[in-house]
Amino acid sequence: MDAVRRLRWLSACSLMALLLLFVVVMAGEEKPENSSINSNSSDGGAELHLDESSKSSKNSSMAESWEVDELNEHAVDDPEGVVAMVEESIRNSTDRRKLGFFSCGTGNPIDDCWRCDPNWQRNRKRLADCGIGFGRNAIGGRDGRFYMVTDPGDDDPVNPRPGTLRHAVIQDKPLWIVFKRDMVITLKQELIMNSFKTIDGRGVNVHIANGACITIQFITNVIIHGLHIHDCRPTGNAMVRSSPSHYGWRTMADGDAVSIFGSSHIWVDHNSLSKCADGLVDAVMGSTAITISNNHFAHHNEVMLLGHSDSYVRDKQMQVTIAYNHFGEGLIQRMPRCRHGYFHVVNNDYTHWEMYAIGGSAEPTINSQGNRYLAPVNPFAKEVTKRVETDMGTWKNWNWRSEGDLLLNGAYFTPSGAGASASYARASSLGAKSSSMVASITSGAGALPCRRGRQC
Length: 456
Hints:
The chain is of the alpha/beta class. The protein has one domain: 3 Solenoid (Pectate Lyase C-like), CATH 2.160.20. The protein is built from 7 helices and 31 strands. The strands form 5 sheets. It has a 10-stranded parallel sheet with strand order 1-2-5-8-13-16-20-24-27-30. A 9-stranded parallel sheet has the order 3-6-9-14-17-21-25-28-31, with no helix packed on it. β1, α4 and β2 form a beta-alpha-beta unit.
């Protein structure tokens, strides 16, 4: 009997030790709350209207230059350094901060990180910890106050009214921007953003439409989430404010939905984009550390341009992740069209294209993994890939590969290159899921119909 009691006692002690170890491990892994200047709820806190006393009355007499020699202090002066920083972060975070904390098992690591939390609206800033891919370190306005947009107007792009979206995005301090109600915002001129901003459209129905759209130029750390952006038009030849202390003359803009120019650490997630004058998402002029995820693209010709020109060599350091997007009805080409750089195209659903899906020139490295490509009926448009204005003797050495992709209805991907491991390592930003999961992973692509008090 003494031996039995001793055995039971030892078993109980072992169980208590295991429980204690489990508690210690969980406490060690629990993430501290993000520090925030404003502890108020994002939906119930006071509106922030920053002081405009620092407005500049000085008029810029010349157009803001688009030349590389004219980069301002926010420009990406060292794209190679940004590449190294992103790669180091990926190496040091193989489990991506335990993204399954609220997991509801969709297989989409971004959505599983936050969507199953019924109190998502009180924990909005958790989104900033859910990024993946090359733009995973974009924190947006996580460390700033909430700013509630109450006014859809855009009457004066030089002196925007407090409460408008333009007034919010130009501020110098980090801000997490939310919306009081459903609204359609028709911008008179480009919405020129400042660094460390999140535009968060969850919980309401926000359209940026029928005017100018979003410009991310020479800045860093921006998150664009939950917007409907469509029918963007060319604008310009006008004065536009870009910060509380500066406004200047803008030449004509192309009419992109989201234009990323000389910027880094950018995350464009869960937006619905369509029918714009030029591109839906364009990234050029040394931009890097970008993730384009969970978006729904539709009814557009040239969807996505990544790389300024064949001769612009600074884009050789560009790294972009394109993940979990749905390329849907009415699309024709450029999903994306790449120059130079490194591009990870992973777990996207391509259900429509008329010319081609993925194209490029100037020797980009394209790593296509776990995507679903459904070719159109047209027998002459079955090829996923297109080398733009380049002969085979040149492009045969480019590193383009298809790995684990599901090719349907006669779709085919033309690979090239020797498969240099170092090149593909720089075009790898997360682990690809099986292509059989693409339908479920991308089922929520686009702006989500989130409602307060419910899982989104």
